[in-house]
């Protein structure tokens, strides 16, 4: 795949070197187009060494190759990171005063702009209008992350992590070389609201201990990131996440299954698609000890009585918040002497009443906390789809699958 990586003149330009490495390590052909201002932060030698290609900056360089037209017309993907306030303004107004802005005017492939700037600049009405203009033209503009900026300031305006940018970029194109990957273009969920749950709940035993599970939240976070890249407005309810939530999504933090239940019921009303990827405890202690449970002097073992937790998936599937709402469940199964994990997944799909169920086989703890996975998607009509690869790859496949299910329910 031919990628053009534009680099704007902000201090966050150093992070784009890591983004460049992510693309080149996958074997993509990357041409870096730094603006003149960006070279004050990262020099051309860095871009040329990491990409193995020239990093042209001026429309009058290599004129015989007509770079100001050729680069954009030949590209499969254009990513600009960081996109400064000035660069967003020039792109929105169609200016073409350097090689990068010329390329943006010529490109017919997906274009992803990743803003990074001071909070006041990002929130200024002029910048907001420029972003709205670009999005109305089909340009994909990520929301910046919230965090520490230059100096002591913090707030929205931070460049998202390179991994998040990379995943959002690949979600815009069909990448057949990645195992199990399916395209989820930046418009397949445009105008849709998506609710994703992720992580694993913890049920307190006493002030120190809890009953929990090994879910890290990586797959749910990847799904939220892929849904956002596909154009959706995303709410992520995270239970004890071990990874950072992606940029551009609303994040609601919870701990217990009861808190997750309440958060889902509060957020599901506007959702067109609900993806229940969190690992929710089936049981919790019937009572919470007021003090740390101690070992007894006589050596007897404590007795902990458990009670069922609410079945959130079954509840929201039986009582949909709106017509046509699509609900997807997840199942982590190991199988037993008489049943395969897939058989358990089919039975769970029938019990829960959701529109699809994603099966993870977790024998010996496989999948939990890992960067790769393999899934089966089971639907009520008996169809089974399979995907494997990194969790970001699989997330893009799943979002594309869920988007088709959602499209088929219009008017249902």
Automatic annotation (TrEMBL):
Keyword Nuclease: no
Region feature Phosphopantothenoylcysteine decarboxylase, mapped onto this chain: 1-193
Cofactor binding notes: Binds 1 FMN per subunit.
Superkingdom of the organism of origin: Bacteria
Reaction catalysis annotation: (R)-4'-phosphopantothenate + L-cysteine + CTP = N-[(R)-4-phosphopantothenoyl]-L-cysteine + CMP + diphosphate + H(+); N-[(R)-4-phosphopantothenoyl]-L-cysteine + H(+) = (R)-4'-phosphopantetheine + CO2
Enzyme Commission number(s) of this protein: 4.1.1.36, 6.3.2.5
InterPro entries: CoaB-like_sf, CoaBC, DNA/pantothenate-metab_flavo_C, Flavin_trans-like, Flavoprotein
Domain Flavoprotein: 1-162
Cofactors required: Mg(2+); FMN
Domain DNA/pantothenate metabolism flavoprotein C-terminal as annotated: residue spans: 189-399
Annotated region described as Phosphopantothenate--cysteine ligase, given as residue ranges: 194-412
Record keyword Transmembrane present: no
Keywords: Decarboxylase, Flavoprotein, FMN, Ligase, Lyase, Magnesium, Metal-binding, Multifunctional enzyme
Pathway: Cofactor biosynthesis; coenzyme A biosynthesis; CoA from (R)-pantothenate: step 2/5; Cofactor biosynthesis; coenzyme A biosynthesis; CoA from (R)-pantothenate: step 3/5
Binding site for CTP: 282, 292, 310-313, 330, 348, 352
NCBIfam families assigned to the protein according to its UniProt record, in alphabetical order: coaBC_dfp
Summary of the function given for this chain in its UniProt record: Catalyzes two steps in the biosynthesis of coenzyme A. In the first step cysteine is conjugated to 4'-phosphopantothenate to form 4-phosphopantothenoylcysteine, in the latter compound is decarboxylated to form 4'-phosphopantotheine.
Family assignment from sequence similarity: In the N-terminal section; belongs to the HFCD (homo-oligomeric flavin containing Cys decarboxylase) superfamily. In the C-terminal section; belongs to the PPC synthetase family.
PANTHER family to which the protein is assigned, alphabetical: HOMO-OLIGOMERIC FLAVIN CONTAINING CYS DECARBOXYLASE FAMILY (PTHR14359), PHOSPHOPANTOTHENOYLCYSTEINE DECARBOXYLASE (PTHR14359:SF6)
Protein known as: Coenzyme A biosynthesis bifunctional protein CoaBC
Organism, as annotated: Tersicoccus solisilvae
Name of the gene: coaBC
């Amino acid at each position: 795949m031919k990628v053009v990586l534009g680099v704007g003149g902000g201090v966050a330009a150093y992070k784009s070197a890591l983004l460049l490495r992510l693309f080149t390590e996958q074997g993509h052909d990357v041409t870096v187009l730094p603006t003149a201002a960006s070279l004050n932060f990262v020099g051309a030698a860095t871009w040329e060494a990491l990409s193995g290609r020239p990093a042209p900056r001026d429309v009058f360089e290599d004129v015989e190759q007509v770079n100001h037209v050729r680069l954009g017309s030949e590209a499969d993907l254009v990513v600009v990171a960081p996109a400064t306030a000035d660069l967003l303004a020039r792109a929105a107004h169609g200016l073409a005063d350097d090689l990068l802005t010329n390329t943006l005017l010529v490109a017919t492939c997906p274009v992803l702009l990743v803003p990074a700037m001071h909070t006041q600049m990002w929130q200024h009405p002029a910048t907001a209008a420029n972003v709205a203009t670009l999005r109305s033209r089909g340009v994909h503009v990520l929301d910046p992350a919230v965090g520490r900026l230059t100096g002591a300031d913090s707030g929205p305006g931070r460049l998202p992590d390179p991994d998040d940018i990379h995943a959002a970029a690949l979600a815009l194109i069909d990448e057949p070389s990645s195992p199990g990957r399916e395209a989820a273009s930046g418009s397949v969920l445009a105008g849709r609201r998506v609710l994703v749950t992720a992580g694993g709940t913890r049920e307190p035993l006493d002030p120190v201990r809890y009953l929990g599970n090994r879910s890290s939240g990586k797959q749910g976070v990847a799904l939220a990131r892929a849904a956002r890249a596909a154009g959706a407005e995303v709410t992520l309810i995270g239970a004890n996440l071990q990874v950072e939530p992606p940029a551009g999504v609303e994040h609601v933090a919870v701990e217990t299954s009861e808190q997750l239940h309440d958060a889902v019921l509060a957020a599901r009303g506007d959702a067109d698609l609900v993806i229940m990827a969190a690992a929710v405890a089936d049981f919790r202690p019937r009572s919470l000890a007021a003090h740390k449970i101690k070992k007894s002097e006589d050596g007897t073992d404590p007795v902990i009585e458990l009670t069922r937790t609410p079945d959130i998936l079954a509840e929201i599937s039986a009582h949909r918040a709106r017509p046509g709402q699509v609900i997807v469940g997840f199942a982590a199964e190991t199988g037993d002497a008489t049943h395969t994990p897939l058989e358990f997944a089919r039975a769970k799909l029938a019990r829960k009443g959701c529109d699809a169920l994603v099966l993870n086989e977790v024998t010996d703890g496989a999948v939990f906390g890992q960067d790769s996975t393999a899934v089966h998607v089971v639907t009520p009509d008996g169809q089974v789809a399979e995907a494997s690869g990194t969790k970001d790859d699989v997330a893009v496949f799943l979002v594309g699958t869920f988007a088709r299910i959602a499209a088929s329910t219009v008017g249902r």
